[in-house]
UniProtKB/TrEMBL annotation:
Organism this protein belongs to: Carnegiea gigantea
tRNA processing listed as a keyword: yes
Domain ELP1 TPR: residue ranges: 941-1102
Keyword flag Zinc-finger: no
ELP1 alpha-solenoid domain sequence ranges: 711-932
Lineage, opening ranks: Eukaryota, Viridiplantae, Streptophyta, Embryophyta, Tracheophyta
UniProt name for this protein: Elongator complex protein 1
Amino acid sequence: MKNLKLSSQISVSLELQFGSEERVLFSTIDIERNRIFFASSANVVYSAQFPSSQNANVQSGTVLRAEAHPLGLEVDDVITSFDYLMEKEALIIGTSSGLLLLHEVDSNAIEVVGRVDGGVKCISPSPDGDLLAITTGLGQLLVMTHDWDVLFETAYEDHREDFDVSESLRPADDKCESPISWRGDGKYFATLSSVPNSPLLRKIKVWERDSGSLHSSSEPKALIAEALDWMPSGAKIASVHDRRNEGKCPSIVFFERNGLERSSFSISESVSAAVEVLRWNCHSDLLAAVVRCERYNSLKVWSFSNNHWYLKQEIRYSRQERLRLMWDPAKPLQVVCWTSSGQITVYNFIWVTAVIENSVALVIDDANILVTPLSVALIPPPMFLFKLIFPTAVRELAFYSSDSKNLLATFLSDGRLCVLELPVLSFWEDLEGKEFSVEASYSETELGSLLHLQWLDSHTLLGASHFGFNHKKDFPRTAFKDKDLGYHLVEIETLCSENHVPDSVTCSGWNIYILSKVIVEKLVISIASNPVKKGSAFVQFNGGDVFEYVSQASIPQSASSSHLERYNDVSMSSSCPWITVASVNRGVKLKPLLFGLNEHGVLHVEGGILCSNCSSFSVYCNSSDQVITHLILATKQDLLYIVDISDILDGNAEVKYENFLHNASKRRGEENKNFINMWERGAKIIGVLHGDEAAVILQTIRGNLECIYPRKLVLTSIINALVQRRFNDALLMVRRHRIDFNILVDYCGWQAFLPFASEFVRQVDNLSHITEFVCAIKNENATENMYKNYVSLPSAKDVKDVNARGQEDLNYGNKISSVLLAIRRALEEQMPESPARELCVLTTLARSDPPALEEALARVKITREMELVGSNDQRRSSYPSAEEALKHLLWLSDPDSVFEAALGLYDLNLAAIVALNAQRDPKEFLPILQELERMPVLIMQYKIDLRLRRYEKALKHIVSAGEVYYAECMTLLKDQPQLFPLGLQLFTDPCKRKQIYEAWGDNLMDEKCFEEAAATFLCCCSLEKALRAYRAGGFWGRVLTVAGLLKLGKEEVLNLAHELCEELQALGKPGDAAKIALEYCGDVNAAIGLLISAREWEEALRIAFVHRRDDLIAEVKNASVECAGALVNEYEEGLEKIGKYLARYLAVRQRRLLLAAKLRLEEHSLNDIDDDTVSETSSNLSGMSAYTIGYVEVEEGFCYLFQFKCSEQGKGN
């Protein structure tokens, strides 16, 4: 789905030096030294530099500087064949007398290398240059080496019996009636031979290169003698079928190597038309022909896709001179045309997508444009929605689209311009299958050859007009002047004399007028309209310089500024034939952003280089304001990138997207979210679907269309719809693209969604979709987990505005419960009562976290009671049946949980219905229900609460059952200690409260919570148990305090103090033991000894000095000196060990660093190797086997220190 666009053309004139009768016969190219050669009818060879944009003046009509080399042939001898031998760096020339001449152009030396009988008809070197095939006038075929040795000679013509040899010796013209065409690999070549006794019939013969034997031959057919060319790829042999005897125009036919005809197509001309030249380009994707018609000669270029041949370009010439063509051997889109008078034109084509900005495909095919809006129907050509038919072949088109107008301008091969207005896109479906004939617009001025046609506004066009030598003739309305030669920027005004009908196509009544014409001194490479400034466009000249053109209507009459001014010093590094201008947000203003792609795959942005391996690109906007938000970029590695425009403007694109190169050395686990792998090699981006469609359209080499929806674009569209409060559109996109529904509430925090739940339900208005949404809500943030690499959240201002709306009455819990509660309220407010609504409400209850099954069953219970009563209330029809509601709950939840929830309602009948619908075994649940039914109500509720582990309710019910069940109540309290506070609240009798306190304290003692147990015992005045609790916990001060409360005797307190002192010593608390010994036992010696054990030297000395005990003072001093000596010895031993550890660590670390450096050196050579080519089980780390003992990603210092310590311990043991 692409068009062949004429990017530039250069016209020069070859000055023939030997009279007006001299004609150019042949041409060839030297691609190594960029030279072109011509042979004339005066037996003169002209050599010149190949005209290009670098060495040619854009003002066409320039004389080509050529050197003339006369060959000095005899008077009756003429050149019949001509080619360039790259290996010899010379021209090989054949003459009618049979001479084979080798002409070295640099030295002007001519060497006769051979002579053949009957004269030379055609010379064709093999593609590799090793062989030379020659056909003679006697019907012989010779194959020679480059050393002029004949490999074989055979007859390729089957002459009739009365064949006259003198017929083959007549002077030759510029036709090659015995062409030779090689296959691209040089293994075979084909010739066109006449059939005896049938002068109109010919056969294609395929010959083997090495043996010279005939490989195959086609059936006789009326083929034109000079038209034969083998596709370089080898798939087809092209020739021309003359069908004048059938009353039809010629058709181009294709043969296989075995001589069988494969296919054909008509050239769509008059019966008298004739194809004189047929040539494939070097890539085998374009077929060019010179067609001679009644009133003109034309260059036609076809391409093949989807089993259809498209005429992509037609360029017309005057019929007065013969026209010839040749493709550039190295550049597949450059063709050279020349006439017999020496007028030469170089055409440079480029492939451009046929999909324009608003996703409409306009595919050129001869005089037709196949129109398909891809947003309506994604169908590849030659299929279409409707067709536009023009008077002649279409060469250039420009489309203008706005909210109210769709305009199309086309430039035709006869030099006329057509303008038509299409209806708005919403009416296009009504045009399906229709064909519209378009009339040419009326113009009083010749337009020349229009290139790069663009709309400036709805009434003005801008194009680059080129006037060459072929425009000097046949101008009926104006006289041609030499000053008009070359390139001009032409501004054209369009006016329509007919009123446009909104739902139809306006194809006639258009007039065009030239408003201004600006002469340019450089080749115009491309023109792109400025979407930000009306009446403005950007013009790129050869070399990459960018200028801004302002329409005449946009310049005030008083202003002195020119139409064309340099734009912000923007210059591409080279010429970029593919240029796009995007409207982007820069601050508060819209500004244009220029993207340019050159022929080498370098993508420029505002003159800077963004990507160096780009194959195609497009831009995408997600809103109706046409502000571009993303760049879609495909690389030569078949990777598709979705680039945020903000990253480009901030200069972060190259770093974020890793220079748009795939790093093959990355581990497989490091998944890259920046690009998408395109599944078919060579696929190109041809367009995008903007807005909520969020699609990228790719076309493969085979021609089929593929529409993909990149996750990044889809999520951007969803968030854009949510920010604009288009909840239904966002939900539909989520369902269509299988996006996690949580994105609908997580895009700027689920709390921000809650105030808009009612609006969400109102817009969606589809209970099935809402139910699907409810079932998908999870307690996680999709924007931070699943889609964190794809989306950027809305700006802080948008989030602040959202959070400020209507959140006063909302009490937030967890995400699931809060969102489903808001949805449930919205359903009850917005949706009318119906069974579907009730089921959706039940879904919100069942999916809550935790599930609100009891509330759901309560609603089912109401329905069931209405059914049992047999009420005829109108509300009855607004609810589903109880059985249906139960089945819905059981489908959403665990059946056991629903059964327990039914029991929790203390409705045994409802529980039985749930069990039956859950298909539980009656032997399992009926005995339980029957047993519960026989119990008193409170006891039944108590048993159900115990079963459901609702212990607080169970306690309340058993307490309410009366004094008889007091023992069971105490058992429940002891089994569930968390109920003791509630039990104290429920009981008011002091005796029972004391029992509860003691039971609680005993439980705390069992759990080793001694301090809390003692406090509990004190609450019920159980002092002895409190003393034991404090003593068990080591709270000696509180033990002695409780002993005081118990009013123990002096001797009992002393014994208790001695016991506590021993216990504290055993617990490693000599300091506390010393206090007891001193304060309660009065034993100074024991107290000093205990303080020395605790190393509390100052306290020991203080007490010794208080009691004036010199012996104790000396004892404290001696003990402190002994302790200091032990500490010094321990320190010295520690220093020695650390020194050994450090030496070992440094030695191991040095060896580790040396080994790591060696590994990095070895891995450097493997960086470019894909992981898939390396065995996962292989290892190049054998050199580390002595040092890697199963360590995994640990700090290396700790690793080896730990290893060393382990080894030391092993030696010690």
